[in-house]
Amino acid sequence: MMQRRFFRPSLPGALAATAFLAAALPAQAQTGAGSADAGSRIYAANCAACHQAGGTGMADAFPPLAGHFPDLLKPADGRTYVGKVLLFGLEGQISVNGNNYAGAMPAWQALSDSDIAAVLNYVSSAWDNGKSLPSGFGPFTADEIKALRTPELTSAAVYALRSGTAGGGAPPSTTANGAGGSAPVSFTADQVTRGSDIYVERCVQCHGDTLDNGEFGGAPLNGSYFRKHWGGGSAAALVAFMKAKMPPDRPGSLTDQSYAELTAFLLDANGYPKGSKELPPDTASQQAMSLKRGP
């Protein structure tokens, strides 16, 4: 087995690492009078890196929530759909207002029921969304979110639900069966070695030499936390999330190949078997590769 080499380098972006804490760790909601502010804080900590502070999204990757979220609530099952998106993630190309988005949203099951209810209520009213909510809209509740946790769904199953929502679905060329990955993920030992070097240079101070003991308190990249967030989706979901948030001082600044190699390193560290085929750098190929493993 390859000997991983770690050290504590002096990173150029080390000062920015403290800011990464908010993006890497789930925010905790408060209850009572502070619940409205809690939703804003949870959004800033967990959602803004992809959907942006103003809810405008990122071209080609993450859809806007401003002006679009109320449309998702208009169908009879709209509340159920958005709750399941938060809980179980979403993968597959979608279309919003004529624009296609190919990013992937991770599952946020690690957030509490009250956290998810709070952030959904925030998004429902922010950026003038409150003016377009369906008649009779009521706030999301923790009990409502709790009921949605079972049965547990894959991100592909959530994607299939989207066709029934207003204002957005899969483009004609994309099918629900194509989302979420169907082939086992593949990567090579050479990719793991190169990814280890990238991790040492870019990630170790936040996430640590054991992937869960970082000096700046970055989220764990192994164990149950990793399985809960990424074990049910495709390689594309993990890569897209890293591109959106890492490195903390310059998200998305690595090459596609470097993100693929860093992913290979993380998968190896989490017990996925190495093979003879490299993890490809393009999103379409990564979306076809599942991170789900048997019992």
Account of the protein in words:
This protein has 295 residues and is mainly alpha-helical. 43% of the residues lie in helices and 5% in strands. The protein is built from 14 helices and seven strands. The chain has helices at 14-24, 35-46, 48-51, 69-73, 78-88, 113-125, 142-148, 155-161, 189-202, 204-207, 223-230, 235-245, 256-269, 283-287, and strands spanning 90-91, 94-96, 99-101, 104-105, 168-169, 183-184, 289-290. A three-stranded antiparallel sheet has the order 3-2-5, with no helix packed on it. A hairpin with a 2-residue loop joins strand 2 (94-96) and strand 3. Helix 9 packs across helix 13. The protein starts with 13 loop residues before the first helix and ends in a 5-residue tail after the last strand. The model is unreliable at 5-33 and 166-180 (pLDDT under 50).
Quick gist of this model?
43% of the residues lie in helices and 5% in strands. The protein is built from 14 helices and 7 strands.
Q: Quick one: overall form?
A: globular
Q: Which strand order does the major sheet show?
A: 3-2-5
Number of helices: 14
Radius of gyration: 19 Å
Main beta-sheet strand count, sense and barrel state: 3 strands, antiparallel
Question: Which residue ranges are poorly predicted, with pLDDT under 50 across at least 5 consecutive positions?
Answer: 5-33, 166-180
Give the helices and strands as they follow along the chain.
HHHHHEEEEHHHEEHHHHHHE
Give me the count of strands: 7
Share of residues in strands = 5-15%
Helix percent band: 40-55%
Structural class: mainly alpha
